[in-house]
Specification:
homotrimer, alpha/beta, Rossmann fold, 2 domains, 5-stranded parallel β-sheet, 4-stranded parallel β-sheet, 16 helices, globular, amino acid binding (chains A, B, C)
Chain lengths: 397, 397, 397
């Protein structure tokens, strides 16, 4: 039996036609079939690579990355995904470009895309901006393609916006699917997406929002826990609620970390900034109000410090299902006594889960590659089978 | 009939033997046949790409870029061109190198070129420096190749110097050739290369110089318009004059934007700094005279401000041929009311020409790829035909 | 006869099994057979390239570079080597990453390596740190591979640490092997590795240490010369002593440049900082003691200035073997009257040896590619022959 058979069979059972020539910005814009197609192709690409079979679908072409915030794993994941498919990464470093020199978003989007097959953007800092910017870029390159400026339509992949972090959350989902032995086994499992204390501040909301927006699709019991004042975007909570209803799971909120962790199968304790504070900060940045920003920072740190008890401790872990909930984190974590005095998680907890945490991260390149693949290839089943049949070595042995 | 036939036939009629293993620095160093060969191969490479046929001529090899000024479109155009032909781009970031640490140009040129097939340089800021630097690099890598340091001779492609901007102007030319339905139709067409007001200062002279040096080759009536004091390099004006005589066109100068635009088929309104100011600035930079530089900046801005009436307005556009002259710009433009209060062009004019402007820019990667191709391939006709026959997909469908 | 035959025959006579799936950090960790395997594969890869035969062994994959110090030639050599074998370079720019944000070395090492086949690190500034860091990274990625985070084990190649500069020294060795017509001809040749005056300070010790640690392997008479106070690491001197004994050569020390140069076949005059000063500086940096660093800098410059007579002059060159010793340098050199007033070498000496110096540098990409090749390919003889037989053009002609 061919390696690709099971993936092809799975894909045959799914409807994902609309992913062709499309973007990946928010998981809740995709049908469940489409999400499953992403998981399936990600696993298939991984299988090919493990078996040293080339999965290059491009002979030339560029993958453009634009990081408006520092990044290690997402940067290298995007580069890995592009390279795996045959695209060369070109980073748009805004500092080296003429963007400050009066270019519009429409103009820049087209000027960098003459031979771009994919554009990956990380823009997570300012509320109401990142996702909008990505949609603008997408609109303009589609227009450029229609007008004849661009011979191809570059696919937009969000590498984290102000609302969602789809490549992270899809990698997280791939991880738990593998840990629990199949997507069907997620039903009824309890996950605690919990705020946790950090001595730094202003961390994006996109991970907790992305998690409650995605994992409610699979019939899970998703609990969002945070201290009062650390609310996430209301719109995303409503999506989570709707998802849970449709999938036969649940979405609940609590101001108690203990309650969230109780009997949880999975815990995701992580710091984030209050949505309203991020909104305020976005306004202050827009006004260039440095004094305001500084005083907001102090406020936020003081607010965080009131919740030092929100830590993922050994004691708390013991209260989870059989004391063995799967611990998730998007990394890097603030580890008490290691990267900071007091942080999100006890060093011993983190250390016990280090291997699965690294594995969790290792799905990201495949998740990204899968998103690109499904946007570029009309008949993924046929192409996966063809790649296996061609059996070109990834590396000569 | 094969896709490549018409390009092969055209190339068969041209003499471009000397382009093999040669650089591309100034358009007026090339014969008219050679320029036509660049246009032809650019169109052929575009045709291959549109038809999803790989035009890789390199299996490995580096394309080195060195940008001494910020750049978006030229940077991505160079990267696109290299990638299209199979070269990987490596940027020589002088800040990260040891160049300050006592290396000579000869040494650096050789040390970065061990596996470099092409070196693209942008060095347009200082009068008398950029072009000279490129010639030095070219001389030294040829020497390195002859001496056995380098196994190949890296091709130098100017990505803009103090004198010419050949990749931009060749892309501009490709654009108007396409708009007017053939190079033969340019004869007798009037183009106004005109200074325009900008609230910034010190923009390079290489575009106006490049345009008058190139478009006078095709029998066009080229008018250079600018306020008194904004003269370009005298040597380039003489070249334009000589070109016009030889091609049966004309080259005239005026201090009136109105006169230049009157009945023009094409207009290219764009700001630039006076040649003598740029010379002065180059000296001041060499001396490290900060106070001098600052006071020159103020002078130049004040001088610009005296010519706010030099704008490409709707009124002025109406005076062009049938009120419909083709509007050109190398981008980004200073658009009145959009990127600045008062700038080079009315927003409504710019907006009406946005699509052709983007198309104009989209020729640049192909122009650069063509220059590299003609330097690297002894028998372009044979190789273009072979690429078509091989019919390797650029992207699996 | 096939091009690869002589290299295959040579490799057949060597035992280098342990290089497979291994790192290259210090030359003295390798057997003499293993060093000869590196030389042989480097020459074979060069032969293939000169004959326009592709030596790509990877269809996709990343080569990660991490430069903790500025670099031109090593950066481009690493990029060239990766490109030659089919790997795309991704630079880990620590400024753009989240490393400051609480990541451990273990975490970063894994997070950048999902699809990394090789990691090249330059970390030469701090005594006791660079080599240790590389070993940590290697340990962690091997662990990651064993744990299933990484599907492949990235090969570590030191691009210069605090102890050795193996890619430089192996390139230097390749150069002298070629100049003297074979590795067997190095026996009994005298090389002077000598300190030389420089107006800058704090240059790494890795080159002199690497040279005495490597060239004592080949039966050469290696003389280390420096003013009192400029001692190198004691451990490396002991290795040189042991090497010399084993290889039938000698290792001696002197505080006289004249003595070292006398009748030398090869001279390598180069500035470096005293080991104890580098240790002191490392401590000061660790403490963040800026005042201490500044005063140490002044001290070191003053100490250097006491030894301005340590220059490679024409007079000194006359005292070497037949007045014609081969002059080596890792470049860039401090050239008297050119890059500085008084420096390591007379301009006329440097100029006379410019061609061989550039050639010396040109071996570096092949040395690096060879190290990667031998780590990745179990049967180099078979693969080299196969590459020749496949005869894929590096560049279409």
């Amino acid at each position: 039996m061919a390696l690709m058979d099971k993936y092809v069979t799975k894909l045959d059972s799914l409807d994902f036609k609309k992913m062709y020539n499309n973007d990946f910005l928010l998981t809740w814009e995709k049908t469940k079939d489409e999400l499953e197609a992403v998981f399936t192709v990600a696993e298939a690409l991984k299988e090919l690579r493990v078996n040293n079979i080339s999965s290059k679908i491009f002979d030339s072409g560029l993958g453009i990355s634009l990081f408006r915030d520092n990044s290690t794993r997402t940067r290298f994941s995007f580069a890995s995904a592009c390279n795996l498919l045959g695209l060369e990464v070109q980073d748009l470093d805004e500092g080296k470009s003429q963007i400050a020199h009066g270019e519009t978003v429409r103009e820049t989007a087209n000027m960098i895309s003459f031979m771009a097959d994919v554009i990956g953007i990380r823009d997570d800092m300012y509320i109401g901006k990142g996702n909008t910017y990505m949609r603008d870029v997408s609109k303009y390159v589609q227009e450029g393609n229609a007008e004849g400026t661009l011979e191809q339509r570059p696919t937009l992949v969000s590498l984290q916006c102000d609302i969602d972090h789809p490549t992270q959350c899809m990698a997280d989902a791939l991880h738990i699917i593998n840990e629990f032995g199949g997507i069907e086994n997620l039903k009824g499992k309890k996950i605690a997406m919990s705020w946790a204390y950090s001595p730094s501040y202003g961390k994006p909301l996109s991970v907790p929002q992305g998690i409650i927006g995605l994992l409610t699709r699979f019939g899970m019991d998703v609990v969002l826990a945070h201290p009062e004042g650390y609310e996430v975007m209301n719109e995303v909570e409503e999506i989570a609620m709707k998802n849970a209803k449709e999938s036969g799971g649940s979405f609940t909120k609590t101001n108690s970390m203990e309650e969230a962790f109780k009997d949880a199968d999975i815990v995701y304790p992580k710091s984030w900034a209050p949505f309203i504070a991020m909104e305020k900060r976005t306004d202050l940045y827009a006004k260039g109000d440095k004094a305001g920003i500084n005083s907001l920072e102090k406020e936020l740190l003081a607010q965080n410090a009131e919740h030092k008890d929100w830590q993922c401790t050994e004691e708390l872990m013991k209260t989870t299902k059989d004391g063995k909930a799967l611990y998730l984190h998007c990394l890097p974590a603030d580890i008490s006594g290691l990267s900071c005095e007091v942080g999100e998680v006890d060093a011993s907890v983190f250390d016990r889960y280090r291997k699965p945490l690294y594995r969790e991260a290792s799905y990201k390149p495949y998740a990204i590659a899968s998103m690109i693949f499904l946007s570029k290839i009309k008949n993924p089943q046929g192409v996966l089978s063809m790649l296996e049949k061609n059996n070109k070595s990834r590396k000569i042995k």
